[in-house]
């Protein structure tokens, strides 16, 4: 009875097996059915008027937690993960009710006879397949299955299994009902054949938006922005959000705190030197428990810490170096061996990004890169130019300095240039996925050490924490009496804003924090929080905005986004008009139209294939590819919206492989296309049902 014992122990996980039986969204998120819900208690919410008992929701949550712990026994259930699992439990309960409504809507029923027939069939339900398969034969072990079913001790377990099977069969029937609504047209099949087999030759020219002037020529009035927002509200649909204002009282370690940590670490020096088992000593004393038997280069330290270590005259086997400060920690290193290792490099760079396929953007970026190179050659300091021009937020403020790094720490194109060049070399522009880089190689080193180390993070002391907490409490009292803004003036604090966030999303600039989320979604607008401790210190927060409308507010940021979208739209309309007129005047001569713009080139691409998702010579632009394969040979396109502007295309020809039998290919591709359309239809159907449902979430958090 081993199988049944296992099933009895993990019965509430059995439904995960249904994932393979149907679309994951539908079966898990929509088809999960936990039996044995207990009644009574407060409501967690309602779905289309159907009550959801809090105990029901909690049972689903507890089972998700059990499953998480069984799969990841060593993992921590963090605030963020707990919130994710709670939201997932709520979604499961909501989706189950909506699914039950679909069963009623389409009169989906499964009889006891159908359940029995499914168990005895050659293609049994998933719960049977996963638990009664004979691994040697690949077939169902009927003797074991029948023995388990007939054993009176297993009666309760089998009743639950039958409920699971019934649910799977009902989902299958609903799936079949919805799939029957989907048909594939001849034109859709023809288009798929062209995408799979066609090779196209085309000539085209891309006309950038800048060809019709700058943004300042295209004004957008506030009513236009509001009209766009109202006409496209579905684009701005979102979960309920909150925005908070807050001040932070930093608990930054003082010099005294730092000295205390350093002194504590230094007091371990003798014992660390004499320790016979570094792993045990490090595990006990270090804030990073795995820092033993390591090989380090300069790339494993900050620049200053690396200099302190590798320039130390006492660096030799058996030496104990430190404590040395490295960013926000102290490190004391027990050297086992000094050696030569893989070369690491130090470099600075200036990053000039551009979008792949944006011809005008790339041209502008290369022009700027050449200008910067000329300024460097004329004697201007690299660091000053990096702070002025570089778009890499991580290094620009440091004059472009990237510190020490290994070859594999950088993208291949960047690393190849740096590690081939000599120290002092100025290189570039080098193109990578991030854009163009102007690079200055500032160091090479192959020094390395084998060692163990004790690391102590520099933390604020209890006194420092208490001082910050006291100031936060004083601020809170002042804010409640005189107002948040006045309190920030009195305490000379900066007022921060989170921007909107959902119950399950990250709080901008703060991260996951359950206590803050609970406060935000349970308090009224203008309410003050209790003092909240975070890694950086102590926060006092106020609810600034509440949005339960289901749509993003037309705030300043969204207005700017819509304004830019409308400017691009107006530029596109201007381009369309000018190109259409020129096409008529030049009798469809693409070269003549391009020449009229000046600087626009006609590109010939002879092997455009949809599967490759890129146009030879030009690059990736799916809208350009779609336009090319949708044309007939010998025709000239109307202006086509592409990345960065408009395109005019002449399709010179299309061909299929000589061995291709188009009718056979259609017969092969038809079931594939049907399946894709059916899956997409079902996904969209249930998404629409969920969106249309009246869902009352009363859980709090």
Automatic annotation (TrEMBL):
Q: Which UniProt keywords apply?
A: Cell inner membrane, Cell membrane, Chaperone, Isomerase, Membrane, Rotamase, Transmembrane, Transmembrane helix
| UniProt topology in membrane | Single-pass type II membrane protein
Q: Give the highest taxon in the source lineage.
A: Bacteria
Q: Give residue ranges for domain PpiC.
A: 342-443
Record's Gene Ontology CC terms? Answer: plasma membrane
User: Chief localization class?
Assistant: membrane
Q: What is this protein called?
A: Periplasmic chaperone PpiD
- Native organism is Chlorobium phaeobacteroides (strain BS1)
């Amino acid at each position: 009875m081993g199988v049944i014992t296992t099933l009895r122990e993990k019965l509430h996980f059995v439904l995960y097996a249904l994932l393979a039986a149907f679309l994951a969204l539908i079966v898990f998120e929509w088809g999960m059915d936990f039996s044995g819900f207990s009644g009574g208690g407060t409501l967690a919410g309602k779905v289309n008027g159907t009550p959801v008992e809090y105990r029901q929701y909690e049972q689903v949550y507890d089972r998700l937690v059990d499953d998480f712990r069984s799969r990841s026994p060593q993992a921590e259930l963090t605030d963020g993960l707990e919130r994710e699992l709670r939201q997932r439990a709520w979604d499961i309960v909501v989706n189950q009710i909506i699914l039950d409504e679909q069963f009623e809507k389409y009169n989906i029923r499964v009889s006891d006879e159908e359940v029995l027939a499914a168990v005895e069939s050659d293609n049994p339900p998933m719960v049977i397949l996963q638990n009664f398969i004979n691994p040697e034969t690949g077939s169902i072990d009927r003797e074991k299955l029948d023995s388990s079913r007939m054993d009176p001790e297993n009666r309760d377990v089998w009743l639950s299994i039958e409920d699971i099977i019934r649910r799977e069969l009902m989902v299958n029937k609903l799936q079949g009902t919805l799939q029957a609504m989907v048909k594939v047209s001849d034109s859709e099949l023809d288009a798929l054949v062209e995408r799979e087999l066609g090779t196209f030759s085309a000539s085209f020219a891309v006309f950038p938006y800048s060809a019709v002037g700058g943004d300042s020529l295209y004004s957008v009035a506030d009513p236009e922005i509001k009209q766009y927002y109202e006409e496209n509200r579905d684009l701005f649909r979102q979960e309920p959000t909150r925005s908070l204002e807050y001040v932070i009282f930093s608990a930054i370690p003082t010099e005294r705190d730092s000295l205390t940590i350093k002194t504590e670490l230094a007091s371990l020096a003798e014992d660390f030197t004499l320790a016979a088992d570094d792993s045990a000593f490090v595990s006990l004393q270090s804030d990073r428990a795995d820092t033993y038997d390591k090989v380090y280069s300069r790339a494993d330290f900050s620049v200053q810490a690396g200099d302190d270590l590798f320039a130390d005259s006492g660096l030799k086997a058996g030496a104990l170096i430190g404590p040395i400060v490295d960013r926000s920690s102290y490190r004391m290193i027990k050297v086992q061996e000094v050696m030569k290792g893989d070369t690491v490099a130090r470099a600075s760079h200036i990053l000039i990004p551009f979008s792949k396929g944006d011809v005008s953007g790339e041209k502008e970026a290369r022009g700027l890169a050449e200008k910067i190179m000329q300024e460097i050659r004329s004697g201007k300091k690299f660091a000053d130019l990096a702070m002025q021009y570089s778009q890499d937020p991580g290094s620009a403020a440091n004059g472009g300095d990237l510190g020490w790094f290994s070859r594999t720490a950088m993208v291949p194109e960047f690393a190849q240039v740096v590690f081939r060049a000599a120290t002092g070399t100025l290189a570039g522009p080098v193109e990578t996925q991030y854009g163009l880089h102007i690079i200055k190689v500032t160091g090479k080193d192959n020094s390395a050490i084998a060692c163990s180390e004790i690391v102590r993070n520099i933390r604020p002391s209890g006194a420092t924490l208490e001082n910050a907490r006291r100031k936060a409490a004083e601020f809170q009292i002042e804010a409640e009496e005189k107002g948040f803004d006045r309190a920030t003036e009195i305490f000379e604090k900066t007022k921060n804003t989170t921007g909107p966030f959902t119950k399950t999303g990250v709080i901008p600039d703060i991260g996951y924090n359950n206590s803050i989320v609970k406060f935000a979604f349970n308090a009224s607008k203008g309410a003050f929080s209790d003092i909240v401790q975070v890694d950086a210190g102590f926060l006092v927060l106020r609810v600034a905005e509440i949005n339960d409308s289901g749509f993003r507010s037309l705030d300043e940021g969204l207005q700017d986004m819509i304004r830019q979208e409308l400017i691009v739209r107006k530029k596109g309309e201007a381009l369309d008009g000018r190109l259409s007129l020129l096409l008529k005047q030049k009798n469809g001569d693409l070269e003549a139209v391009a020449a009229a713009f000046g600087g626009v080139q006609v590109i010939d691409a002879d092997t455009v294939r949809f599967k490759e998702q890129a146009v030879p010579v030009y690059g990736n632009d799916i809208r350009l590819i779609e336009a090319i394969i949708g044309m007939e040979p010998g025709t000239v396109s109307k202006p086509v919206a592409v990345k960065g502007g408009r395109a005019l295309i002449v399709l010179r020809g299309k061909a299929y492989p000589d061995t291709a039998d188009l009718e056979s290919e259609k017969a092969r591709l038809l079931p594939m296309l049907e399946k894709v359309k059916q899956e997409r239809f079902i996904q969209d159907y249930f998404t629409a049902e969920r969106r249309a449902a009246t869902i009352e979430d009363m859980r709090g958090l």
